[in-house]
């Protein structure tokens, strides 16, 4: 809990809060990128370039998704959707297709991008 005398949160709590926030934000952003691809609005490279130029992120959501593993993203979204029953966490069908084909990112050499 917040320590009013030091005006700080315990480090262990900061770490867990930070991790949960980052995971939820990344999962939703990567899911939206998947919807853009699924709906034929943009390519992975267009999405990544737009996000990098528009937000100054060092990597785009498709690159991040491939690094984290699309299977992990799908699992996180599914758990969030089950917990909160909110459409914002409903996994894009493209993620399910990719995971079923074992196109989960860098570890399988294919995800949003292909790797050699």
Structure description:
The protein is mainly alpha-helical and 116 residues long. 61% of the residues lie in helices and 0% in strands. The radius of gyration is 16 Å and the shape is globular.
Using the coordinates above, name the CATH class: Mainly Alpha
**Termini Cα gap:** 47 Å
- Named CATH topology: N-(1-d-carboxylethyl)-l-norvaline Dehydrogenase, domain 2
Low-confidence parts? none
Can you identify the CATH superfamily? N-(1-d-carboxylethyl)-l-norvaline Dehydrogenase, domain 2
Q: Give me the CATH architecture, please.
A: Orthogonal Bundle
Q: Decide which structural class fits the backbone.
A: mainly alpha
Question: What is the radius of gyration?
Answer: 16 Å
Order of helices and strands: HHHHH
As for the number of domains, it is 1
What's the assembly state of these chains? single chain
| Count of helical regions | 5
SS strand fraction: under 5%
* Helix fraction by DSSP (H/I, runs of at least 4): 55-70%
Task: Describe the global form.
Answer: globular
Mean pLDDT, as a whole number? 91
State the major sheet. Answer: none
Instruction: Give the total of beta strands.
Output: 0
């Amino acid at each position: 809990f917040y320590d009013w005398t030091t005006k700080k949160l315990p480090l262990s709590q900061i770490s867990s809060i930070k991790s949960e926030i980052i995971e939820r934000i990344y999962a939703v952003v990567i899911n939206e990128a998947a919807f853009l691809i699924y709906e034929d609005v943009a390519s992975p490279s267009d999405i990544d370039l737009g996000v990098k130029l528009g937000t100054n992120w060092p990597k785009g959501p498709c690159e991040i998704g491939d690094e984290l593993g699309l299977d992990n993203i799908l699992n996180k979204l599914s758990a969030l959707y089950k917990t909160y029953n909110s459409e914002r966490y409903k996994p894009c069908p493209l993620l399910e297709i990719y995971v079923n084909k074992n196109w989960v990112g860098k570890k399988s050499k294919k995800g949003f991008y292909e790797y050699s």
